[in-house]
Amino acid sequence: MELTRWSVVEQNTDKQVLRDRVIEHNVRVIAKYYLRATIQQLTRLLELSADEVETFISKAVVSGTIYARIDRPAGIVTFAQPREGEEQLNAWASDVNKLLSLVEKTTHLISKEEIVNKIAQAI
Hints:
Blueprint: H1 2-33, E1 36-38, H2 39-46, H3 50-62, E2 69-71, E3 76-78, H4 85-122
Antiparallel strand pairs: 1-3, 2-3
């Protein structure tokens, strides 16, 4: 009779361990696909209370599994790691280059269209 009692306890702890691992996995997936999320969104996604969400996120951060910052007053969790200064400048420079390339293409297409219109009017 004592063996059955222990097997029930082990089953309950096994279920709890499985539940915890599934939640940890879900937190890792959320951290991968979201840059920012509110605590309310996370409670809805993970089907946990706000305290449990914070606990699981804190454990994942401490273990080094994810990067997150929790802004308690605003209720926002940020998963994106801040960039270094040089890295941020390189990203901006790349974005400016892309923008200039688009402006150049647009200017070329506009001038091409003007030439086609002038030729069409001349005919």
